Amino acid sequence: MRRVMSVWAVLAWGAIVAAQAPIKTIEDGVLDHIELHAASLDSPSSLTVAIEPFDASTAELGTGGKDGKQTRQEEARTMQQEGPRVLAERFASTLKADGPFKGVVVLTAGGATPADAVVVSGRFAALDPGSRAKRYFAGFGAGKSAVEVVGTVKDSTGRTLATFRQRRVGAMGLGGGDSLGKLMSDSRSIGEDIATFLARWARGQALDD
């Protein structure tokens, strides 16, 4: 089922893709939305993949925003600090184990990007703790948590090779579920999702399933 984008994701996505039209668009495949601006990743065995920790400063926080309860605000702030790190680390570990690339690195602030690198960057569009009480008492998707990212893949010259969007939600769990734990888990899972996309694309495998 095709997922509805948050308002912040729509704005972020529009800023990312406005510059050029893709040669292929894939919906609900290995990622929710992929736009390819290049047919393939050439010679992946000679490439290093570098990921910049995604910016979480402008993420839509939902119930963790300024009008939310203190506990949810704290969860959202924790995710703004920790989400970029856990996503990048899981992306790197997954791609190192599964990818056909020469190397995979997580970039740090001020760190140099390898000359032959394909660079993955982006930002969190949503980091919403949801409502544990609603998940417990109402069910049926009420109070669900959400993590959503938008991002780009660029070559060493800055040319856009692909753009993507991925969202994960949490609607169930014991006692309504642990919001912070689910947000952390979903951030790691999105890191894995993006790594899977790159590995499959580099190998010429299908991206639409």
In terms of DSSP E residues, the strand content is 15-25%
Separate helix tally: 4
Q: Could you describe the largest sheet, including whether it forms a barrel?
A: 7 strands, mixed
Euclidean distance between termini CA atoms? 12 Å
- Assign the CATH architecture: 3-Layer(aba) Sandwich
* CATH fold group: Rossmann fold
* Basic shape: globular
Q: What is the spatial order of strands in the main beta sheet?
A: 1-2-7-6-5-3-4
Structural class comes to alpha/beta
The radius of gyration is: 17 Å
Any chance you could write out the topology, listing elements then pairs?
Layout: H1 7-17, E1 24-27, E2 33-36, E3 48-51, H2 70-98, E4 103-106, E5 117-128, H3 132-137, E6 145-154, E7 160-170, H4 179-203
Parallel strand pairs: 3-4, 3-5
Antiparallel strand pairs: 1-2, 2-7, 5-6, 6-7
Helix pairs in contact: 2-4
Structure explained in plain terms:
The two termini are 12 Å apart. It contains four helices and seven strands, in the order αβββαββαββα. Helix 2 runs parallel beside helix 4. About 5% of the residues have low confidence. The chain is α/β, with parallel strands linked by helices.
Task: Label this structure with key terms.
7-stranded mixed sheet; single chain; Rossmann fold
Short description:
With 209 residues, the protein is an alpha/beta fold. Helices cover 34% and strands 23% of the residues. The chain is built from four helices and seven strands, in the order H-E-E-E-H-E-E-H-E-E-H.
